[in-house]
Design a protein that fits this description.
Distance between the termini: 14 Å
Shape: globular
Radius of gyration: 19 Å
Largest sheet: 4 strands, antiparallel
Oligomer: single chain
CATH superfamily of the largest domain: Nucleoside phosphorylase/phosphoribosyltransferase catalytic domain
Strand order of the largest sheet: 2-5-7-3
Order of helices and strands: EEHHHHHHHEEHEEEHHEE
Number of strands: 9
C-alpha cells in the first residue's frame, strides 16, 4: 500500500484552541463559510490550516485525484467556501449517533467553562515561542487531560491562545484565556501563571519557520 508520512512541528500548539469543546468549536468555525475565521481567510489559524491542507494533499495525491498542490488547494477552498465541508461534517455527526438538531448547530450544545481568566503579558515584544509541553501541563492541571486512564476528562476546560508566535504584544495585553470547566482544586489555581510561563517573548524580530517539515 502506498503511503507517506508528513513530519510536522509539534513543539507549539496548532491553532488557537486547547481543550475538547474549544477545539471542536474552532474546527466548526474553520468549516463554517460564514464564520469570522473563514472571512479572514483562516489567517489566525494558519498553522492548523497548513498542516490539514498538507495532509489532504498527500491523501488526494495517493488516491490519484490530484498531481499538484495547487489543484488540491483549489478543491479545499471550494469545499470550505461552498459549505460542502461543513455539510459533510454534519453527516458524519449524525452517522455516529448525534441528533440531527444538534448536528445542525453543534457549537450551541457544546459545554462552556464556568469561569474564564485572562493571562496577561509580563513584558512587551514579539511572541517567539509558545511551549506545547508547558501548555499540556496546564491542561493537566485543568483536568482537560487525564492523569490516569480511568480519570474523566473535563470537556469544558482548556486554553484559548490570543497570541501566537510572530505576533506582537504589549505589556499587560492578553496572551491567553484559561477556561475553567469543573476544575476547582488547588492545582487548577496555578494554571494561569503556568500558562504565562509557556510564552517566550523577545524584543527582536525573527523569521517564523514552516510548520511543515519533511514528507517521507
Amino acid at each position: 500500500m502506498a503511503c507517506r508520512a508528513v513530519m510536522t512541528a509539534m513543539d507549539e500548539p496548532l491553532g488557537r484552541a486547547i481543550g475538547n469543546a474549544l477545539e471542536i468549536r474552532q474546527a466548526w468555525e474553520i468549516l463554517d463559510p460564514g464564520s469570522t475565521l473563514a472571512q479572514s481567510n483562516w489567517n489566525s489559524v494558519r498553522d492548523y490550516f497548513d498542516v490539514t491542507s498538507e495532509l489532504l494533499y498527500q491523501m488526494l495525491f495517493l488516491a490519484g485525484r490530484v498531481r499538484r498542490r495547487v489543484d488540491s488547494m483549489e478543491m479545499i477552498y471550494q469545499s470550505l467556501r461552498s459549505g460542502r465541508a461543513l455539510a459533510k461534517f454534519r453527516e458524519m455527526l449524525v452517522a455516529q449517533g448525534v441528533a440531527p438538531h444538534v448536528a445542525r448547530d453543534l457549537p450551541r450544545f457544546l459545554p462552556r467553562s464556568r469561569r474564564v481568566v485572562t493571562v496577561s503579558a509580563f513584558k512587551s515584544g514579539r511572541v517567539r515561542f509558545v511551549d506545547a509541553g508547558k501548555m499540556a501541563l496546564v491542561s493537566l492541571r485543568l483536568g482537560v487531560l487525564r492523569r490516569r486512564q480511568e480519570d474523566a476528562a473535563d470537556p469544558a476546560g482548556g486554553i484559548f491562545l490570543l497570541k501566537k508566535s510572530g505576533e506582537t504584544v504589549r505589556r499587560g495585553e492578553a496572551l491567553a484565556e484559561i477556561h475553567f470547566g469543573n476544575a476547582v482544586n488547588q492545582d487548577s489555581k496555578m494554571a494561569p501563571e503556568a500558562a504565562r510561563e509557556a510564552f517566550e517573548i523577545s524584543p527582536q524580530k525573527f523569521r517564523r519557520r514552516s510548520v511543515i517539515g519533511k514528507v517521507l
